[in-house]
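# nightly structure sweep
# worker-07 picked up a monomer target from the shared queue
# config: single-sequence mode, recycle default, output format = structure tokens
# input follows
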Amino acid sequence: MRRALGTLGCCLALLLPLLPATRGVPHRLRRQPPGNGPGRRGAADAACKNRPLDLVFIIDSSRSVRPEEFEKVKVFLSEMIDTLDVGERTTRVAVMNYASTVKVEFPLRTYFDRASMKEAVSRIQPLSAGTMTGLAIQAAMDEVFTEEMGTRPANFNIPKVVIIVTDGRPQDQVENVAANARTAGIEIYAVGVGRADMQSLRIMASEPLDEHVFYVETYGVIEKLTAKFRETFCAANTCALGTHDCEQLCVSNGGSYLCDCYEGYTLNPDKRTCSAVDVCAPGRHECDQICVSNNGSHVCECFEGYTLNPDKKTCSAMDMCAPGRHDCAQVCRRNGGSYSCGCFEGFTLNPDKKTCSAVDMCAPGRHDCEQVCVRDDLFYTCDCYQGYVLNPDKKTCSRATTSSLVTNEEACKCEAIAALQDSVTSRLEALSTKLDEVSQKLQAYQGTQQVV
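# output follows
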């Protein structure tokens, strides 16, 4: 089976005594590829550039990997990055760290220059537990090899490559997961160190196994694999010779080439030079609401009151008055894609338009009582001055009549007293009449005695 990474057998990667030492390839490992004499060495090196890849490193940081050994792995990653033609339109790199859990240290979309990648690699810390290799491969498929995370679309024909570095035996079922990854078009290289289980490496790796399975005795010599991978990934092409006249990008096309431009630029009619385009011009983007130009590319944003959907293109209205989305002290009122604050009854909105203060419900102009306003906590009731009574509308007052000032109970008492008074008066009048009669009879009797 041909290697999916393009024309291999080129690159003269191990015949590199003229390369700077910073390339990270030990001089003792360089050998001269067949068919190239010493006089052609410099030209071959200049032509050696790897074909664009979407490359993911999956590194084992389980408990069996000692801290100093893990540092060696990070050196290996840095030296590998140095050998790659890194860039947004060339090779993109992601790094995953795994043990019992999986951590994506950075996806394919994050860094497009070697310095930033190497700085991120230097900050990686081991997870120090378990060896769940199958889980790591599954996470690569689900979380890294997606367009949202920087993997280029299938029609770009960019190879998807995984390099797994481990020193142990997987503690989960890796066979089916690795098979699914290979079926999905992911090429897997398995690197074993020290105690690594060779059978597990062969189960994971792509065919032919002798080109995809590597082994080193210790982490101390893992860097020698850098040269092997450089040879594997190196692809000579017309564009790499530097004899083309493309202003920005050269795309190898068999024995010839075509010119192309960086994202955000368009190829001019001369088919060589490029002109900047407005990536946010109508028809050039898929943003639902707002397009923001970003270094030749663009990102989508939303109007206030809307949130960007997971597709990073469309927007959905959000409830501005949902808990945690507003700063109103009492009442939040939605207003299209925005909101305004209000207060409960008995409170008034402060000048900051957010907080509220209690108000005097009986202050002038705040109530509808005709005469007297009586505060009752946050509410009020109406009352009247002396000599007036409150009308049924509970707001206005009318002058009270005398009868209206006497209660039913008092009226009953008055009637009883009046009746008693009438009864006593009648009896006194009757008694007085009898006394008069007696007095008259007594006078008459006395007159009779005198005559006698």
